[in-house]
Write a structure and sequence with these properties.
The complex is a heterodimer. By secondary structure, chain A is mostly beta strands. Chain A is built from no helices and eleven strands. Chain B is an all-beta fold. Helix content of chain B is 0%, strand content 57%. The chains are: A mainly beta, B mainly beta.
């Protein structure tokens, strides 16, 4: 059945290492998004992509990178430049770019030690 | 500067009574508004939305009201059930301004049996 799959659900990394979070969707959605949730901060937009091979920075893009080589996939790399990487990361997609409801994956909890 | 504000971090309601969750926005370009429900360690799930051409949208126990002049919307849940206990996020988007969803910080609803 259709949906958005994020893997893994829990991820531990040592400080200074880059780590890539996976996001795959089989909903045939054009747009995909990455949000970060911190306690008391709500959901903050990291990056979004409206079509394949195109993406834009969100409000907190520093220390992150993305790629959109396939419509189904939008991986997020948390680099060593991200100062506070420990957070809950949420991937989402929507049928058309912007201005419509987005559907979320189950999230990845990243802990950097 | 926060564009979508949920000023009540938490709300407790007796089972069977009405829950009213509030949301204010500052960006007059926003023309599409949504509510999401989120359980811990899970992705948000879409609840209900409203376009700026309407002032009310109803879906079962959930009704969203929009007051454009006041830049305010509210979610009413009647009757409230223990399973409604979750964090509720208000989100807004602009079709004309081409912005992805902007989320508030959320309100934690506790429905007491």
């Amino acid at each position: 059945d259709g949906g958005i799959t994020q893997s893994p659900k829990y991820l531990f990394r040592k400080e200074g290492q880059n780590v890539t979070l996976s996001c795959e969707q089989n909903l045939n959605h054009d747009a995909m998004y990455w949000y970060r949730q911190d306690p008391g901060q709500g959901l903050r937009l990291i990056y979004y992509s409206q079509i394949v091979n195109d993406f834009q920075k969100g409000d907190i893009a520093e220390g992150y990178s993305v790629s959109r080589e396939k419509k189904e996939s939008f991986p997020l790399t948390v680099t060593s430049a991200q100062k506070n990487p420990t957070a809950f990361y949420l991937c989402a997609s929507s049928i058309r770019p912007l201005g419509t409801e987005a559907f979320f994956g189950q999230g990845t909890r990243l802990t950097v030690v | 500067d926060q564009q979508v504000k949920q000023n009540s971090p938490s709300l407790s309601v007796q089972e069977g009574r009405i829950s009213i969750l509030n949301c204010d926005y500052t960006n007059s370009m926003f023309d599409y508004f949504l509510w999401y429900k989120k359980y811990p360690a899970e992705g948000p799930t879409f609840l209900i939305s409203i376009s700026s051409i309407k002032d009310k949208n109803e879906d079962g126990r959930f009704t969203v009201f929009l007051n454009k002049s006041a830049k305010h919307l509210s979610l009413h849940i009647v009757p409230s059930q223990p399973g409604d206990s979750a964090v509720y996020f208000c989100a807004a988007a602009s079709n004309s301004g081409n912005t992805p969803l902007v989320f508030g910080k959320g309100t934690r609803l506790s429905v007491i049996a």
